[in-house]
Design goal:
About 35% of the residues lie in helices and about 30% in strands. The protein has about 400 residues and is an alpha+beta fold. 8-demethyl-8-dimethylamino-flavin-adenine-dinucleotide binds next to helix 1, strand 9, strand 12 and helix 9.
Length: about 400
């Protein structure tokens, strides 16, 4: 069996794993990234689109923001639409001039993969980590299955950036890990369409038929979502039905229809909230979706993942270069405070915008929350600051 050695073994080449690799590489700390999927797959995976103010700064500081600065779309507001009327939340006015950047997760991933290859630091695709051992001993080891055969890697630290229900969180003894979870009685059907968006800003919409979100990726590509029942499948949603339902839910007098074009990607995603505690076990650190999941209504998943990595990077540098344990010891606690805040905000946004068909009490509460969010300056300020830069509150 082939044997390798590194300071930090990183499992997963999503935004979390790739960003950690980039930051460590710039600091002269060795790492190897293992990704079980192909490069094409991870570079085409359509997911998040909204990057918070502080995370834009992190991406720039990491030297990975060149294309984002050119192609990312800076937004200063969002719309909350309900009862077929739109209300603007002036994000930047309410949040100290800060803004969000609309730039696809797939683009962040492509930029980071390009930098990794450019630096010559190791990144293996089609390489699945199958076991993690020695987490409480002097050295950790991971086993990796690759097309060329199995590899055994010895390392000081393991970064579990392997997404939901991955090998990293499964390697923590069940007696040491607590999982807190919520599932919701709806899913999101998302499409990417070659159509110039009919809106300049994102629209979060609550309609009696269900939730809808009008987002975008570029001046010629729209990203739209429909709240659907969790048991619905893509077979039940023809292109005609998707467009018709988007038009019904999103229509207002000023915007009677969305702009349509060929649908180039579609998927259904279940909505859930998960927090794994703690985010560290011995030499293993969990970051990103491996540690927590938020429903996408608050646009926080990728931002949280990159926020964890910022903490983990500082903690590993302090330990590896200065033998200072303080930050690795406080990593889990520091991250979890921010994670719970993001869980709270994502839960609030989710529960305000998804009507329940058989619960008029819940629907009444949702409408009252929406009215408060647009009429109370205090409420819209909290929403704006959480949306733009969760750390600012
Ligand atoms: P990822 O991106 O899932 O990457 C984990 C990687 O690990 C690999 N892997 C392994 N590799 C080797 N060996 C193993 N044993 C492995 N097991 C797994 C996987 O193949 C994968 O490549 O996790 P990471 O890096 O933590 O990043 C998290 C984000 O991807 C996620 O939180 C966001 O996409 C969530 N999200 C959003 N976040 C935002 O910040 N803003 C948004 O606007 C936003 N919109 C969304 C979203 C997620 C969505 N879906 C589809 C869940 C919209 C949607 C619809
Ligand atoms: C997206 O553009 O994919 C997107 C935007 C906002 C969200 C979730 C997803 O809350």
């Amino acid at each position: 069996m082939k044997e390798l050695r590194t300071q930090v073994a990183i499992i997963g080449a999503g935004p979390a794993g790739l960003m950690l690799g980039q930051l460590l590489q710039r600091e002269g700390i060795d790492s190897i990234i293992f990704e079980r999927r192909s490069r094409e797959y991870v570079e085409r995976r359509v997911r998040a689109g909204v990057i918070e103010h502080g995370i834009v700064q992190l991406i720039n500081d990491a030297g990975a923001g060149e294309r984002m600065q050119r192609e990312g779309l800076v937004h200063h507001g969002i719309e909350l639409r309900f009862d077929n009327v739109s209300h603007r939340i002036a994000l930047s006015d309410l949040a100290d001039g800060k803004s969000i950047t609309v730039y696809g997760q797939a683009e962040v991933v492509k930029d980071l993969v390009g930098l990794r290859y450019g630096s010559g630091a190791p990144l293996y695709f089609d390489a699945e980590v199958t076991a993690i051992e020695g987490l409480t001993s002097d050295e950790a080891t991971i086993q990796v299955s690759t097309p060329e055969g199995d590899v055994r890697v010895s390392c000081q630290y393991v970064a579990g950036c392997d997404g939901t229900f991955g090998v990293a969180s499964r390697s923590i003894p069940t007696s040491e890990l607590r999982r807190h979870e919520r599932t919701y009685p709806y899913s999101w059907l998302g499409i990417l369409a070659e159509a110039a968006p009919a809106t300049e800003e994102l629209i979060y919409c609550r309609h009696q038929n269900g939730f809808a979100l009008y987002s975008l990726r570029s001046p010629s590509v729209s990203r739209l979502y429909l709240g659907v029942r969790p048991d619905e499948t893509l077979d039940e949603w023809s292109d005609e039905r998707i467009w018709a339902e988007l038009n019904v839910r999103l229509a207002t007098e000023e915007m009677p229809s969305v702009s349509q074009g060929p649908i180039i990607e579609r998927s259904i995603t279940a909505m859930r909230s998960i927090v794994n505690e703690p985010m560290r076990y011995g030499r293993l650190f969990l970051a990103g979706d491996a540690a927590h999941i938020v429903p996408p209504t608050g646009a926080k998943g990728m931002n949280l993942a990159l926020g964890d990595v910022r903490e983990l990077f500082s903690a590993l540098v302090a330990k590896i270069t200065h033998n200072d344990d303080r930050l690795i010891d406080s990593y889990s606690q520091t991250c979890l405070e921010r994670v719970w805040r993001a869980e709270e905000f994502s839960y609030y946004m989710t529960q305000m915008l998804h009507p329940l068909f058989d619960d008029e009490f819940e629907n009444g509460v949702q409408r009252a929350r929406l009215r408060q969010a647009i009429t109370s300056r205090e409420a819209s300020t909290v929403l704006a600051r959480n949306y733009v830069d969760l750390n600012s509150l």
